[in-house]
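Notebook B, p. 112. Complex prediction, attempt 2.
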Amino acid sequence: MPDLDLHCWDLSYAEARTLQTTLARQVIQYDDLPEVRCVAGVDVGFEEKGSVTRAAVAVLAFPGLELLDYAVAKVPTLMPYIPGLLSFRECPAILEALSRLSVQPDLLFCDGQGIAHPRRFGVACHIGVLTGLPAIGVAKSRLCGKSEILPEEKGARVELWDDNELIGSVVRTRTAVRPLYISIGHRISLNTAVHYVEACLTRYRLPETTRWADALASNRGQAVIRANQVLGR
DNA sequence: GCGACAG
DNA sequence: ATCTTGTCGC
């Protein structure tokens, strides 16, 4: 095993790509997760014209989806957004937020791709491998790969392929809305990943995990108040 | 050389 | 991602 500095984030783009290719071999692409009693969603936003990265994590009970815990972290932004290198920009803040949780999730939903990535190492894989947590990539748009036309009805699902590899699923979570791109992050199979995403849906395009994280990460403090009410404080 | 391109 | 209100459509 090479001596890698996994927590050095200000890398050259070439170094970052090489690290992705190396770490991709550590992704576990089959089901290796405990009984799922709580799931978490992560979301990242930016402040101060992008100089500050803000990450929010929301932990929900499963399958009830009640909010159990949450955490928000702000750290200086070190990398710009480069397609394919998103995780190097967002991971520091996400890891900090995860470390502040008092309830650790059994499964993590990440905004962005898992293995549906040019080097099979999107942000969901990066967070999964570094934390050891089972993780799923839940992206709102496509980074790479091709798929057949997706029917308009809720529940429709087609495979996402790239370079003769099955890298993800394109899933219609509501009728006539843009689909979600779901892929393996770590310690879970594609079918199980899609199963859990669908189990966290209510009446919206995004799973509740992501919706809670979005609300907590947004600038309006209303969400935090709501969170405190739910937590009984 | 010409697009494509998670958030 | 972010700047931002009301508005059109299923």
